[in-house]
Amino acid sequence: MLRTQRLTHTRAYATILPRAPSRLPRKAFLDLDHFLQRQRVLALYRSIVRATNKIPVSSTRQEMKSFARDEFERNKAVEDLTHVRYLVSMGKDQFKTMQRYVDELVGR
Fold first, then answer.
1. Measured distance CA(80)–CA(83) in Å, rounded
2. d(CA 37, CA 23)
3. CB under 8 Å, gap of 24 or more: what pairs does 74-79 form?
4. Tens digit of pLDDT for each residue in 52-68?
5. Cα separation, 58 vs 90, whole angstroms
6. Helix or strand holding residue 33 (H, E)
7. Is 98:50 a contact under the CB 8 Å cutoff?
8. Sign of the alpha-carbon dihedral angle for 62, 53, 73, 80
9. What φ, ψ does residue 92 adopt, rounded to 5°?
10. Where are the alpha helices (DSSP H) in the chain?
11. CB-neighbour burial class of residue 92 (10 A; exposed 0-12, middle 13-18, buried 19+)
């Protein structure tokens, strides 16, 4: 009786290369509340950028864009959810005021 031996063999494919480790730092996953607030912040920023794009090309357009960007950049390190919610509500109020100005400027 012949015994057959099982050979454990790993096949190396030419198309599959081992991944090099990432040089980027590993970021922790966001919990649900932080994720939702982040989405609200991004949605507010997008709507502000869209509104400023409706302004005819002028220095006012650039000033509004740079003001909004500077405000978001200045507060990007805030992690306290209560503070983030406060900033989003204040940003929405300022955006409504800006939107009324843009609508008057555009002539709607």
1. 5
2. 28
3. 79/34
4. 888 888 888 899 899 99
5. 26
6. helix 32-53
7. no
8. positive
9. -65, -40
10. 32-53, 59-74, 81-106
11. middle
Chain centroid to Cα 12, Å, comes to: 39
- Structure tokens, 80: 């306290």
Question: Which tens digits make up the pLDDT trace of 73-102?
Answer: 999 999 899 999 999 999 999 999 988 887
75: closest CA among 63, 90, 60? 90
For 89, the token pair is 């509500």
For 28, left (φ over 0), alpha (ψ -120 to 50), or beta? beta
As given in the structure block, the two tokens for residue 107 are 């002539």
Residue labelled with tokens 């991004």: 42
